[in-house]
Structure formats: C-alpha cells, structure tokens
Amino acid sequence: MRISQRMTQAVLGGSMVRRMFEEGVRLKTAHGQENVFDFSLGNPDLAPPARFNEVVKTILRDETTRIHGYMNNAGWADVREKMAAYLNKTIGQGLAKPIGPDNVIMTVGAAGAMNTVLKAILDPDSTVIALAPYFMEYNYYVSNHGGQVVAAQTDSAFRPDIGSLVEKINSTTAAVIINSPNNPTGVIYTPEELAAIGAALTENSKKIGHPILLISDEPYRKLAFHGGAVPSVFKAYPYSVVVNSFSKDLSLAGERIGYAAVNPDMPDAGALIGAMVLANRILGFVNAPSLMQKVAVELLEESVDLDIYRRRQDILVTELARLGYELVKPEGTFYLFPKSPIEDDLAFIDILREQLILAVPGTGFGRSGYFRLSLCLNEAMIKASIPGFAKAFAKAKSV
C-alpha cells in the first residue's frame, strides 16, 4: 500500500512523548506497573471535579434538549454565550470591544483549535515561529497545512528572547505560537514580556507587509502555582487568538473539548472567524463534542485540586536539587524540565530507563541538553523513584 512521503517521514520521526509512552507499556508488562516510574506522558491522573458527574447526569436527564445532534460548526449558541461571558472576566480586561459569542469557536480540544487556526491562515511554504522549548506536536499541526515551524530560542531561564524572535521573522512568517504556562518548562510569561512580543510583532508586521498572527496556546492557564497570575495576550497585541482546552484543568483529556477565541480588537476579525469556522468543518471535526460542550461551560469556575500537583512538584524539585540536578522551578503546569547531567540528553534518557524511569528528551522540544518529567503519578511513586534518579545522576557523571 502506498503511503505519502510526508506521513512516512512522520511515522519514522514519531512523537518522542508517544514513543516513551509505548516503551512504558512494554516495561510495565515486563517488570510490573508498580516498578516502572513513568514520567513521560502528560496524561492527568486526577479525577475531574466532583460536580462533573452531576452535571453530565442533569444534562442527560433533560429530554427537551436535542443534545446529540448537529449544531452550528462553531458550537452551540448558548455555550458560546457562556464562554464569551467567562472570557470577558478572565482574559478580556482592557479591550476596546467585548468578547462576543461570535468570537468563540468550540473545538475538538486545543489541538483541534490550533489546527482550525492554522488551516485558516497558512499557505504552502508559510512559516510559523515557536518559542523553544515548545510542544513538539506543533511541528505536525503546522505541517498538516503546508507550513513549517521555525524555532526561536528562549534564554537560559526559558524567558522570551525578543532578539531571537525578531531574527526569525521574514516575509513567509504567518504566525508566532506561544505557550504560557509553558509545556515543558512551566514558565509563565509576564505582562511585560507579552507586551514586548506584541511590540516586536507590530513593528515587524509593518516591515513584511502583513499582520503576523500571535497564537497563544493556554491549556495550562488554571494550573498556575503559588497564586501566580497568567496575563492575557489579548491586551498585548490585537492580532491574537487564544486556543485552550479542558483536558488539564478538568482532567477531561479523553473527551476532546476545547475552544478558540479571537481577539475582538483585531481589525477585520470576522474574516478570520469565518475561515476558522469553515476549517472546523472541512477538517472533519464538523463540530466539537456536543455533550461535552454543554458540560464544560457549567464547570468554567472549577478545576482539579491544584495543590496535589504543587505538592508533587515540591517533592521532586527538592529531591532533584539535592541530588545535584539543575532546574528552573516551574511557575505552573505539571511538568519539570531539568538540565541533563550530560550534554547528550538522548543518552541520559537511556540511563534513566535502566532505572525504569521514563522521561522525554529535551531534543524533542527543540532544546537539547534537558529532559521533561510529567507529574501525573502519585506522591508515593515519585518518592520511590528518587533512588533511581540518584543512580542515574551518578552514572552519567562517571561516564
């Protein structure tokens, strides 16, 4: 059977996260699940908020609602009205225009939202800049629509490097993707950093003759530790779109429900919204999952118990630092991104695997010499993994 060259290369390259997940399945079968410390996949292990099941049952009992049928490709009208009201409170402050229901498109997770945006704006050979380290699936999402990702590096603390960003902008640049709180580093960009990005894009959009879209990927917005605020990109730059999901904050990853919100202050925002709504349909999504749209908007003020992730982070940060690992303490998400004890992060991943610890090399996120750990396993397992991290560090330093 003939397979396209693009997909053949994609299969060969694969996703390092998914490959490590599959390796975890193999090791757990061979050694027992309780003996394998799988820090690879960001698959939330906490139960959804207690009200989730109640809301689902209430909606399903309402026989007056035709809940399982088609609706507008942008989503249920009442859902988008509730989403717009919520977004005006959380990310819409300081805008000239309010976020309306027509600015919101319900999607198949944040991934579906990202693909609808990219389908709407990319021509063949367009480029999209991502601030590294970045979520590796962006490469595939951009490639899906004929574009190519160009990495701009952040600094040693993973803060935006405006010089590196500007250096990558040229006439082919269609968009910049930012992710705050960031996967894999946990960094949250400040209002000043977002303003600097917005100013750079404003200036360079004029130079290249077209607006550069700023796409803010925000599935970890509610997972901010120690009361940290996550500033809105909308106030920083009018040509901006937020994509988000309920996968992380409500632990609904498998339900595939999310949304895109277009900045109402964007000139001619309607053209982009129209293209995105059509893209939602012709990409085969058609519309976001109907039942989950109705459920999610009843839980907008809720989230999983963030303190559980924070305690896990505190344990692992403290123990890894004690062992000699270098890392920037995350401000949010449920990830750590320590520096590898040796330059070759792929080799260090193999050393960790000898201790039945699964992690993802930083190379896969566009920043070699680091590795990502997901905190989606319980405290007992995290504590039990520490001797393995100690042995791996000692072996790496002895090589």
Structure, described:
- The protein is α/β, with parallel strands linked by helices.
- The protein folds into 2 domains: 5-48 and 305-398, Aspartate Aminotransferase, domain 1, CATH 3.90.1150.10; 66-296, Aspartate Aminotransferase, domain 2 (3-Layer(aba) Sandwich).
- Helices cover 41% and strands 13% of the residues.
- The chain has helices at 5-13, 16-31, 51-61, 77-90, 109-121, 138-144, 162-168, 191-208, 269-282, 290-296, 306-323, 345-354, 379-398; strands at 37-38, 104-107, 127-132, 148-153, 173-179, 213-217, 240-245, 258-262, 335-336, 357-358, 360-361, 371-374.
- Strand 3 (127-132), helix 6 and strand 4 (148-153) form a beta-alpha-beta unit.
- It is globular and about 60 Å long.
- The termini are far apart.
Topology-level CATH name of the largest domain? Aspartate Aminotransferase, domain 2
C-alpha termini separation: 45 Å
From the alpha carbons, calculate the radius of gyration and give it in angstroms. Answer: 21 Å
The counted number of beta strands is 12
Query: Mean of the pLDDT scores?
Result: 94
| CATH architecture heading of the largest domain | 3-Layer(aba) Sandwich
Compute the number of helices.
Answer: 13
Main sheet? 7 strands, mixed
Q: Secondary-structure element order, as H and E? A: HHEHHEHEHEHEHEEEHHHEHEEEH
Spans of at least 5 consecutive residues whose pLDDT stays below 50 are: none
| Residues in helices, as a percent range | 40-55%
- Name of the CATH class of the largest domain: Alpha Beta
Strand line-up of the largest beta sheet: 2-8-7-6-5-3-4
